[in-house]
Amino acid sequence: MERVEAWPGELRTLSTGRRVFVRHTLPGGDGGSAAAAVAAREATPIVYVHGLGGSSTNWTALMRELRDDAEQWAVDLPGFGESPPGGRHTVAEYVADVVAFLETFDRPVHLVANSLGGMICVYVAARRPDLVLTLSLVSPAMPQYRLPWAAQATAVMAVPWVGERILRTAAMIPAERQADRLAAMLFGNPAVVPVAELTFAAEQRDRWTEKPYADTVLLQALRSIVRHYTQPGRQSAWRAASHILRPTLVIMGARDALVGAWGRTRWRRALRYARLVYMPNTGHVAMMEHPRAVAEVIREFLRDASRIRTSTSTRRTLDRGMPHAVAPLAEERTHATN
């Protein structure tokens, strides 16, 4: 079995004072022309933000598919992956961290996020449109009154003391059974994922859960998500979504056990110009389950968005009264993966 390798990275200190591990890949170098490699390096960078309990390695397969398209960066949020804990691990703190990281670029980026990362990046794009050229969300965790089975089970862990007890009990379950349970929650059909990729994901997850602060970080972040699910209207993540100025892609999996695909209806109401892509054979982490299909969807979206880009959409600040630089991409389509 060929071993999967993560993209290399390094620790960086943000202006928030917190440290994050960032993985990075440059385009070119695998037989492509020098001109193509230069063009890809000059293209808008792509930045990835993972979900709850995940890490930058969740994007390894997708980054492999898009490596010749642009320079790519994947961040471990504080306390996850290889990033040290940051004291507080809440949606608000993570929004500040992502903003701080994006401020290190000399131009707005293509921002791609999954699950908790999706909620975080909704706030980022709504509050700082000068940092974001386009927004792509894979199963974004947004407030829902109707929760799928895995989301209901996960929400129970947010109850004080209950979550700690559940995690202690889970630690006594054999690793293989834990991996099977997690795969059932994350993938629509784990059988379509190459064994090497599943092994790599399990190794990365085990590496993080063995860290002494992992349970604390997980529960703090989970409880913050639940609080945001119950926020009143003006503070709601859906309210933030309605203020996004950038072309937005939302990918939803029909077999997502954590974020119900019925959220597509709410996205159509909240953001008129979102492109919605429905993947019928897919679970919560489409970029890991069907990386090639997701790469195709993102590549097409970025190409279509670039065709209608206005001069205002590349500016780092928006002047008062500036018209919305939103792509006319409103549509919903189904993308069959197998």
From TrEMBL:
Pfam families noted in UniProt: Abhydrolase_1
Start and end residues of each AB hydrolase-1 domain: 45-291
Gene3D superfamilies (alphabetical): alpha/beta hydrolase (3.40.50.1820)
Annotated region (Disordered), positions in chain: 312-338
GO molecular function, one term: catalytic activity
Domain of life: Bacteria
InterPro entries: AB_hydrolase_1, AB_hydrolase_fold, Carboxylesterase_BioH
Protein name: Pimeloyl-ACP methyl ester carboxylesterase
Phylogenetic lineage: Bacteria, Bacillati, Actinomycetota, Actinomycetes, Jiangellales
